[in-house]
Amino acid sequence: MTKNRLKRLVLLTAFLLSGLVLSAQLQIPGTNVSYRLNGDDWRYLRTFEHPAGGDIYLYCYVGHVVTDMEGDTVLPFLRIYVTRDYEGDLYELAYERYMEQPYQSLNEYSKGPGLPPSGGLGYIGAYTNPADQKDYQFYMTYFYDKRTSVEFRLETTKDTFEEMDFEFKDILNSIK
């Protein structure tokens, strides 16, 4: 078994086991960063390899059915980006994300939900998805853990954002 395959197996096992524990503090592998999810409300989906050298962890919200104004079921999600040895600053990282998927910044902050006491960069943003023509809103936070950049993105449709805001802020406020 290759080293990468073994690493993925260990990470997957850890994430699956962490889903069994309610409100457990989870550790991002290879970092000093931890966060809390309600095990009943959030489900781990999978880990992707980050093209820039790291991982992307994906969770979806299953706590209760979230329905938008059009009557469609919405799956709010949490995506955690971890980029090893990132050499740019946080504004460059935010700009890279913007170039991947343009969005409108509704609010920018350097202290607050999802940011460590040492600071970072946070956004509340919005965009329209061309595939389904729905408006989406999200929290996106950027900070460093030594030479690793960490990003949390919590997203749902614009008309369900207020309903999910408490849940999103609970996760962001749990980041240590």
Walkthrough of the structure:
The chain has 176 residues and is α+β, with helices and mostly antiparallel strands. It has a single domain (3-174), classed as Protein Transport Mog1p, Chain A, CATH 3.40.1000.10. The protein is built from 3 helices and 11 strands; from the N terminus they run αβββββββαββββα. The chain has helices spanning 3-18, 90-100, 161-174; strands at 25-27, 34-36, 42-50, 54-61, 66-67, 73-74, 77-83, 104-109, 121-129, 134-145, 148-157. It has a 7-stranded antiparallel β-sheet with strand order 3-4-7-11-10-9-8, sandwiched between helices. Strands 1-2 form a two-stranded antiparallel ribbon. Residues 4-21 have low confidence and may be disordered.
Short recap of the structure:
The chain is α+β, with helices and mostly antiparallel strands and 176 residues long. 23% of the residues lie in helices and 40% in strands.
CATH T-level fold name: Protein Transport Mog1p, Chain A
CATH superfamily: Mog1/PsbP, alpha/beta/alpha sandwich
Mean pLDDT metric: 87
- Second CATH tier, the architecture: 3-Layer(aba) Sandwich
Could you say which overall geometry the principal axes of the C-alpha atoms support? globular
Major sheet summary line: 7 strands, antiparallel
Structural class: alpha+beta
How much helicity do the residues have? 10-25%
Number of domains: 1
Strand numbers in spatial order across the main sheet: 3-4-7-11-10-9-8
The count of β-strands is: 11
